[in-house]
Write a structure and sequence with these properties.
6 helices; 7-stranded parallel β-sheet; alpha/beta; globular
Length: 234
């Protein structure tokens, strides 16, 4: 069986890693003939390390993207896959309008976000990462919906697989000079101080106290400018 995997732009992210690792496992464990189609990025090194063939996709500013649809259609015409496995809803729209509708090549769309994409056509086969989303999708969709939980490579990510030297471990908070990276907090100038690193008693770039909240969401709070309601009630 030949499968063309259309992944998100190959930045360093969870979905990209999932797509690459599962594609390699499908080849190694089940003998599938797999090819990766994605916009190149830093995660392309991971794909190359696993021996995956990468067909470069053009970048796009909008979803769906006419440029990506044309390139995807050309890749499908050339590779002639039995299945097009698409990761995330922007790529799903490209695959649906650019390939599935005109060529009838079956597509499977994997959505790893924590929201239900109701705008996707109901006949498209979908997978979600949680049982709750699968149940919600099945209640409103006619097409197949299955569970595909977030995979973990227990070999590459095993405890002790990577050991950092003590000198490289974060021991305190440091400051950044990037003017665009201010995080929530008060300061005399009205600008927002930035928090970087992990510490029990961090100090901001402007000298103010750390923002309230638990350690796991402190950095997210800085990035988005407000507490994470699902994690930090403050």
């Amino acid at each position: 069986m030949k499968v063309l995997v259309y992944a998100h732009r190959l930045e360093l992210g969870g979905t990209q890693t999932n797509a690459i690792e599962l594609t390699a496992q499908a080849r190694d464990r089940f003998g599938l003939d797999v090819t990766l189609f994605a916009t190149p990025g830093p995660a392309a090194e991971l794909a190359a390390g696993k021996g995956l063939r990468l067909l470069p996709a053009p970048d796009g500013l909008r979803n769906p993207s006419l440029g990506r649809m044309r390139a995807l259609r050309a890749a499908v015409d050339r590779e002639r896959p039995d299945l097009l496995h698409v990761w995330d809803w922007p790529q799903c729209l490209d695959a649906l309008y650019g390939v599935a509708m005109p060529t009838r090549v079956p597509i499977l769309c994997t959505v790893m976000s924590m929201t239900l994409a109701r705008f996707l056509p109901r006949r498209v086969s979908l997978t979600f990462g949680t049982e709750e989303l699968v149940a919600r999708a099945r209640a409103v969709r006619r097409g197949p919906v299955e569970l595909l939980e977030t995979p973990v490579d227990t070999t590459a990510n095993a405890p002790g697989a990577v050991t950092l030297p003590r000198s490289s471990r974060p021991t305190g908070w440091t400051r950044t000079r990037r003017a665009s990276s201010w995080c929530p907090g008060s300061s005399p100038s009205g600008r927002r101080p930035n928090y970087v690193g992990v510490s029990s008693s961090p100090v901001s770039a402007r000298g103010s106290a750390e923002p309230p909240g638990c350690a796991c969401c402190r950095r997210l709070r800085c990035l988005v400018g407000r507490p994470m309601s699902w994690c930090c009630p403050v």
